[in-house]
């Protein structure tokens, strides 16, 4: 096993046992030994959440309570890692980011925001359970070119209170050429054409790939201007 695999194993065992202190100790020791914060997020925390889900759904080997603690600890550790990611002083554009109405999953959005931030975007995170009107209002108030909507459940991606609701308002206000919509989250991973159904301009499977997609959207806006 290489070092990353060892840390992954130790971290997974800690969260599987809902041992918050041990999970934090594993991450602190990984940081001390020189592991990069971004690698901890993508190579340790995200794979552990997926593995935890497999234990719950496929193997029926864990409980929803374990799952809940795992996501709480993961979120707390991600909060500690975000300030350690490089912060870029230059801004390529402003992105308003939130989780769709009715959806309380916030970890993916948090990671997307911090990766965009360290890739020269100004990110306005407006939280979870966000109504369509609030997305548009925040975009106008902050002169944002892109609205990013995270949906982790099928109904919060497809429903009228999700991206489609935002699209409807952009259309009504004649803002479609100046504000683009990007979406992401679990349902889009299961159905790669779903973003079209939700009337978004783009989607991305990961935070890293979102950087290129947003650059493409910004070019589209410049071209149309
Ligand atoms: C952790 C988790 C929870 C935690 C959430 C904690 C929190 N504060 O976030 C808890 C336990 C509270 C929870 C609750 C529920 N959950 Co839940 N949950 C999950 C789980 C296992 C992992 C989600 C996660 O954090 N992943 C880790 C992050 C880092 O990954 P990510 O979110 O996918 O984000 C990455 C990309 O998707 C992308 N991305 C994400 N957002 C965005 C946005 C943009 C703009 C872009 C570009 C990219 C992008 O970038 C991220 C980083 O690379 C998923 C399973 C799954 N496969 O996703 C189920 C899942 C989403 N949950 C599910 C369900 C059903 C529920 C509950 C209804 C359960 C219940 N019976 O109560 C409730 C819903 C509560 C609500 N109203 O929101 C279902 C949804 C199924 C469906 N068909 O709709 C899933 C898919 C589990 C399953 N297989 O059934 N959940």
Automatic annotation (TrEMBL):
What is a single Pfam family found in this protein's UniProt entry?
A: B12-binding
Keywords, A to Z?
A: Cobalt, Metal-binding
Classification via Gene3D superfamilies: Cobalamin-binding domain (3.40.50.280)
Q: Which ranges does the record mark as transmembrane?
A: none
One GO biological process this protein is involved in is:
homocysteine metabolic process
**The organism sits in which domain of life?**
Bacteria
The entry's protein name is Methylmalonyl-CoA mutase cobalamin-binding domain/chain
What is the species of this protein? Spirochaeta isovalerica
């Amino acid at each position: 096993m290489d070092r990353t695999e060892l840390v992954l194993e130790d971290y997974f065992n800690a969260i599987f046992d809902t041992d918050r202190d041990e999970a934090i100790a594993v991450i602190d020791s990984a940081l001390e030994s020189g592991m990069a914060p971004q690698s901890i997020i993508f190579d340790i925390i995200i794979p552990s959440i997926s593995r935890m889900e497999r234990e719950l759904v496929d193997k029926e080997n864990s409980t929803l309570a374990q799952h809940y603690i795992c996501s709480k600890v993961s979120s707390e550790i991600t909060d500690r890692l975000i300030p350690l990611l490089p912060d870029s002083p230059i801004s390529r554009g402003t992105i308003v980011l939130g989780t769709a109405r009715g959806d309380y999953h916030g970890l993916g959005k948090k990671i997307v925001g911090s990766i965009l931030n360290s890739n020269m975007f100004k990110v306005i995170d407006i939280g979870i359970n966000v109504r369509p009107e609030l997305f548009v209002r925040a975009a106008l108030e902050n002169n944002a070119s892109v609205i990013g909507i995270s949906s982790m459940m099928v109904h919060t991606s497809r429903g009228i209170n999700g991206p489609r609701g935002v699209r409807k308002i952009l259309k009504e206000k004649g803002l479609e050429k100046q504000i683009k919509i990007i979406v992401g989250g679990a349902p889009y991973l299961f159905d790669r054409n779903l973003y079209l159904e939700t009337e978004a301009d783009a989607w991305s499977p990961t935070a890293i790939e979102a950087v290129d997609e947003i650059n493409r959207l910004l070019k589209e806006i410049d071209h149309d201007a």
